[in-house]
């Protein structure tokens, strides 16, 4: 039995054209995904990792004493503030651009981190490391700038050294009680027990670890080899009372 074959060639051509178009669209989507990852996800992960690592070393590994010895001029306080503000900047960028703008898990952890910095309660009153929502956004904008790169106009952060000049300049740094209190508290504390605001930092570090674990699972690579450790969470009344007792003992 002979089957008509006249329709096979145009049908095959149509199928090939559809497959080629779909494949090209897939490649374009993958290329765009890689571009967004390079522009927003990678620097955001780096900002999260740098801050959580600094907090963990401060709270759990005696890092404050080492920093005071290495930087007797108190530069470590400016550097720690820079890591916090850089996170604010990249958090705003990744929540507005990139592949995770509507991801409920990223939104949940980002909101928890912002809330930990912004919340003031009876056991954790207004003071060091306490940045309300509007100031988080304002400080984040200070460190972000646009530059020409491989993908055209790209976001990036100013260097720590430029940020330090801004913070120390009465003409460039907007008046901020939160910034002044944070730097003053870090410079005044001789050990971590004397540092006010530790409760906020421990909560932020815990949320950052969970956020990093989630995003690294989605992206398929890790910035840290091994398992990240979480800081011990302080009870609401513990951190201030411990700091006060340490100061009284020193006096």
Q: Can you characterise this structure?
A:
- The chain has 251 residues and is mostly helical.
- The chain has one domain (41-250).
- Helix content is 66%, strand content 5%.
- It is built from 9 helices and 2 strands.
- It has a two-stranded antiparallel sheet with strand order 1-2.
- Strand 1 (144-149) and strand 2 (152-157) form a beta hairpin.
- It is elongated and about 90 Å long.
- The termini are far apart.
- The model is unreliable at 239-251 (pLDDT under 50).
Query: Would you list the SSEs in sequence order as H and E?
Result: HHHHHEEHHHH
Tally of DSSP helical segments: 9
Q: What does the radius of gyration come to?
A: 24 Å
Overall residue-averaged pLDDT value: 82
Spatial strand order of the main sheet: 1-2
Described by strand count, sense and barrel closure, the largest sheet is:
2 strands, antiparallel
Strand-residue proportion:
under 5%
Oligomer: single chain
First-to-last CA distance: 106 Å
Shape: elongated
Number of domains in the coordinates? 1
Low-confidence stretches: 239-251
Secondary-structure content class: mainly alpha
What's the total count of β strands? 2
